[in-house]
Amino acid sequence: MHVLRYLKGTPNKGLFYPSTNSFHLIAYSDADWGACQISCKSLTGYCIFLGQSLVSWKTKKQKTVAKSSAEAEYRAMSATTSELEWLAHLLQDFHLPLHLPVLLHCDNRAAQHIAENPVFHERTKHLNIDCHYTRDKLLEGFLQTVHVSSKEQLADLMTKPLSELQHNYLSSRLGL
Prior knowledge:
Radius of gyration: 17 Å
CATH architecture: 2-Layer Sandwich
Strand content: 15-25%
CATH class: Alpha Beta
CATH topology: Nucleotidyltransferase, domain 5
Strand order of the largest sheet: 3-2-1-4-5
Number of strands: 5
Number of helices: 6
Structural class: alpha/beta
Largest sheet: 5 strands, mixed
Order of helices and strands: HEEEHEHHEHH
Shape: globular
């Protein structure tokens, strides 16, 4: 019902794609730990820009229950990394230049530390192998993580209920 009310109240909103020749992929990844009250599964959300244009976005419930907010964020980073690699291959298919490394913005320093630190330790031994995909892409130089404050985390729109002021601010940053 809230979504329908929002859509009815914002008929003039839409995506704007400026004319640009920037082929920098920039991503924002976020998770809402234990968002589902029934299953306790977290939500993954991301938004990806090509230059200043929003080209991909997603919200999806994670397949497994995360044991911490850092794990939920790390799983969201993995999903975002997969989409980034697909988009990079698409750009290559069109013979368009891709500027590396791709920037992945995350607001959870613990998740960034897990991604950047290849040392096996107690906190990460339970993570599935597929989650370490992000770590591999960091080591390859394809990806670079960037810390972003929660206030500037654009992917919060995909995962959390926000105040009207914050919602409007982040929506405008998406180009809506």
